[in-house]
Every structure is written in structure tokens, then in C-alpha cells.
Write a structure and sequence with these properties.
The protein is of the alpha/beta class. The protein contains 17 helices and 17 strands. A hairpin with a 5-residue loop joins β13 and β14.
Length: 502
């Protein structure tokens, strides 16, 4: 039993009468995985910044066919041995992940009580022998038939772990009406492999893998298509909000950590007539790959509607002498392909590159606080992520966060005051306040008429709002093209806007 369990029961019992009148608060947590395939660069990347993290997750263990563990990075050897000692000295939890995506193996191990109990004990022995602070269970691709087996496994592991942490990394769950938007919902649409109620009961933290979104949210994809926008994000904040709010119905927000990606995708996109696109994933990459390609083709990347960096291009056989396409070139290849397909009623291919940068991570931090969850989990720290991420994470750990979400109709601050970080893709009442401030000055107005114009402000932070914010920042010397915070409503921009609206 957990060391705090009896105290928790007593505290909750005597606190019950006051629950409705006070919001629960906790300390914000920042955790992240270091993958075994980038051990040297990952540990070197994180070591100088350990004080920015609550917990580090060596992503090193996988399960072998006999139920034992493969240590793919030798955690008892260098550089891990010294890294773990340093982390503990700075009071940073070290909790490695045990991962498998072999559904057949999962069924074999968990469906038999003897092998299930043996697996639980092996994990406990591993944690105790290495003085880890707990374990992160990352069993992906489970069959729905193993839902109860997985819950029994978590229950047994939780009881055996004593004071150690049981962390659970689980797949995101998109609302049915968004996943099957304007399509027939299949009968098995809500038959899941994860029992969220039981996961909430037996996991100390629940990391939601809120990434690899692509086209899973048909509603958001349809919205983008209707305005002729390319849409294949790694993790759109609008989608992440849907996922968290759905899963928080069964999982305590004080346990939820939002998974935040630091990698991107390159797609081969086929453009058809009338701005219709089919996306085919080629590979994942670290941001350095994207910036190299952009420089090679003379392209200036742009922030898309999901708040991620993006551009399109057409590969050439020889690109040693690329032609500069100018500052607004991010989507010229896509436009050209679409025009060709429409004119000739045919199709044409181009490449789309999409990745999150430090500003994208900042927007997820702000979103996590807005949603009232425990924190974020970064996948991944390996030295290849946007290094500005460490500036973004500076001072975030341990800040107070309310885990009681206010009703949208009852703002927690003055309707004329901006308190949240806002970026492209945000959907909150504070965006309306932002648009009102921008529309008060002809130089920074969102739109001359229609949605977003004066008197027609909305809660949606779209491209027009982004351009207006950028105009505001340039006017007041707050940011300029190329700056990390360009287009992001961060502390300095909020302070200036609030001073003007006071």
C-alpha cells in the first residue's frame, strides 16, 4: 500500500464539505524520455538541465519473448550510471520505461495468472535492485480482450511496488464524434483495450500519448480541408484538448501528464483537383533535418494552424544551386501542385514537412495549465530537439497549477485581462479578449469584416489572429520574424496588451 494512502483517505474525508468551494492546486511536473538509440547525445543533452525536470525516463527496457527484459542501453554502465547518480543528487526521479507493442506477447503474459504475477515480481525486483524511483509501463497495441487482464496486472504491480511509483503511458482516445465525423460509426468504435477507471486507480501518473495525430480527428481535418489548408499535424492543441477532456472524465487531472512531441514528419502528398490531398508518411525526423532541407531549397518555414512549423517543396534530382523562393515561400509547392491538379483534373505530388519547435512546446505547457492537469512528458530528449526548449522549460517545474477546471462561462480573471499563453490553434474565451484588444487599433485589427472583426470576435485563434498578433509585436518592438516568440502571446506581449486595455 502506498505510504500516503491512509493519510489521503483521512484528509479527503475531512475535506469533503469544502471541495465545492475551493479549487485543488498542485505542483506542475515536467518529465521526459531519453531513448536508448540516442543514449550518448540524450544524456549529454539533459545533464546540464536536470534542474528543469521533475523526472527522467530512460526509454531502454523492452520485453523479450520469455517475459524477461532486454536492457538496450546498459543502465548500470556509463554514461547512465553517473547520470542516474547526478539526477538523484538533484532530487530528480529516475523511472525507466518498460515497453512492448507485441499484442500476442502481452496476451500470453497477462492472460495466465502465473506468468502475470511473475512479470509483476520481475519488475519489482528490477526497480529495487537498481534503486529506481518506480517504473513506467508502456504496453501498446493491446487487444480489447486483454482489458481486464491489463487491469489485474496493474493492480498486482501497484500493490507489490509499495512506496515506488507506478507510471502508465497509454494511447490517446479521440472523441467518437470527431474520429468518425460525417462517417458511419462502427459498432466496435468504443470497445477499448484500456480501462481508464482502473488505470486511474492503480497508476500514480498517467502519461497520455497526445501525439502522432495526423488525420485521426476527421472533424479538424474537414475544417482544414474546407478552407484549403494542409493538415497533417503531429499534435494540434485543439485535438489534444479534446483528448484530455474526454479522458479526464475517468482519470484524475492531478495524475494526467500530456505527452509532448519534439520530432516531426515528412509526407509525400498527392494533390487532387479542388485542394484535396492524400498524405503518405515517409519518416520521422529531428528538427535539424527540416531546417537543412529548407535552407537547401531556399524556403522560409511558416507556423501552421496547429501551431507547428511547416513547409512544402518538390524534390529535385540536383539541388546544388537552389533558387530562393522568398519569405512567403513555405507553401508554394503545395499551391502549384493544387493548381496543376485542378487545371488538368489530374494529380501531382509534393513533399510536406511538419514539426513542433520550442514555441509549440510552450503552447502545450500553457494548454496543460489551462486544462488543469499535472504536467507534461516530453518525447523525446536526445539532443536533436529544438534547443530553445530549455529556455521554454526554465522555471516551469514546481509552479502552481489548479486541477479544478473553471467553467468556460465563468472566467477566472477579468474579461479584459489576458492571463494565458495563446498561440495558433488555441480555442478559449481569452482569444476573444485578445481579438478585442487587437481590433481596438486599426494597425493590428484581425479582420475588416466577418469572423474576428470588431464586434464579431471569436474564441478561435486562426491565421488572421496570428497575423494581427505579429503586427502588434512588430509595432511595439516585442518580436520580429525569426524570433522564437513571433506570433505567440507570451508574458511580454500579454503585459503590453493588458496595459493598453486597462
Amino acid at each position: 500500500m502506498k505510504k500516503f494512502f491512509h493519510f489521503f483517505i483521512v484528509a479527503v474525508f475531512f475535506a469533503l464539505p469544502a471541495v465545492s468551494s475551493a479549487a485543488a492546486t498542485t505542483n506542475f511536473e515536467v518529465t521526459g524520455w531519453i531513448p536508448y538509440w540516442r543514449t550518448a547525445t540524450g544524456t549529454a543533452d539533459v545533464l546540464p538541465h536536470l534542474n528543469e525536470l521533475t523526472e527522467v525516463n530512460p526509454f531502454v527496457y523492452t520485453i523479450k519473448s520469455d517475459g524477461t527484459f532486454a536492457d538496450n542501453a546498459s543502465l548500470d554502465a556509463e554514461p547512465w550510471a553517473s547520470f542516474i547518480i547526478t539526477a538523484h543528487a538533484q532530487h530528480v526521479r529516475v523511472i525507466p520505461s518498460i515497453m512492448t507493442s507485441n499484442s500476442t506477447l502481452i496476451h500470453s503474459l497477462l492472460s495466465d495468472s502465473t506468468s502475470r504475477v511473475a512479470l509483476e515480481q520481475r519488475i519489482v525486483d528490477l526497480v529495487n535492485a537498481n534503486n529506481f524511483d518506480g517504473i513506467d509501463i508502456d504496453f501498446e497495441g493491446k487487444s480489447a480482450a486483454d482489458k481486464d487482464n491489463f487491469s489485474l496486472f496493474l493492480k498486482g504491480l501497484y500493490q507489490r511496488m509499495g512506496k515506488k511509483f507506478v507510471m502508465c503511458t497509454i494511447e490517446s482516445r479521440t472523441p467518437t464524434d470527431s474520429r468518425y465525423y460525417q462517417t458511419e460509426v462502427p459498432p466496435d468504435a468504443e470497445i477499448y483495450a484500456n480501462d481508464l477507471v482502473q488505470i486511474n486507480k492503480y497508476c500514480d501518473r498517467v502519461r497520455i500519448m497526445a501525439y502522432d495525430q495526423q488525420g485521426v480527428d476527421l472533424q479538424l481535418a474537414d475544417k482544414a480541408a474546407s478552407s484549403s489548408q494542409l493538415y497533417a499535424p503531429v499534435a494540434d492543441p485543439a485535438w489534444v484538448s479534446k483528448v484530455v477532456n474526454l479522458m479526464a472524465k475517468d482519470i484524475s487531472r492531478s495524475k494526467i501528464l500530456i505527452g509532448v512531441p519534439t520530432y516531426g514528419y515528412e509526407y509525400d502528398v498527392t494533390a487532387y483537383a479542388n485542394n484535396q490531398y492524400v498524405y503518405n508518411i515517409l519518416w520521422t525526423f529531428n528538427p535539424g533535418y527540416a531546417t537543412q532541407i529548407a535552407a537547401q531549397y531556399g524556403i522560409t518555414p511558416a507556423r501552421n494552424t496547429a501551431g507547428e512549423m511547416s513547409f512544402s517543396y518538390t524534390p529535385t534530382a540536383t539541388s546544388t544551386n537552389p533558387v530562393s523562393l522568398g519569405a512567403n515561400s513555405a507553401y508554394l509547392a503545395a499551391v502549384a501542385a493544387s493548381q496543376y491538379a485542378t487545371q488538368y483534373n489530374s494529380h501531382l505530388n509534393f513533399r510536406l514537412v511538419d514539426w513542433p519547435d520550442a514555441q509549440s512546446v510552450q503552447s502545450k505547457i500553457d494548454l496543460a495549465k489551462q486544462l488543469g492537469v499535472r504536467g507534461i512528458s516530453i518525447f523525446k530528449f536526445d539532443g536533436g530537439e529544438d534547443q530553445n526548449i530549455w529556455n521554454v522549460l526554465n522555471g516551469v517545474k514546481g509552479t502552481s497549477v489548479s486541477t479544478t477546471v473553471s467553467s468556460p462561462s465563468t472566467p477566472s480573471a477579468s474579461s479584459n485581462t489576458l492571463t494565458l499563453g495563446l498561440s495558433l490553434g488555441a480555442n478559449t474565451a481569452q482569444v476573444r479578449t485578445l481579438q478585442k484588444i487587437l481590433n481596438s487599433d486599426p494597425d493590428t485589427r484581425v479582420a475588416a469584416s466577418g469572423a474576428g472583426s470588431k464586434g464579431n470576435e471569436s474564441t478561435s485563434f486562426g491565421p488572421a489572429t496570428l497575423r494581427a498578433v505579429q503586427k502588434f509585436q512588430i509595432k511595439y518592438g516585442l518580436a520580429k520574424p525569426g524570433d522564437a516568440g513571433y506570433g505567440y502571446v507570451g508574458p511580454a506581449t500579454r503585459a503590453k496588451m493588458n496595459s493598453l486595455s486597462a
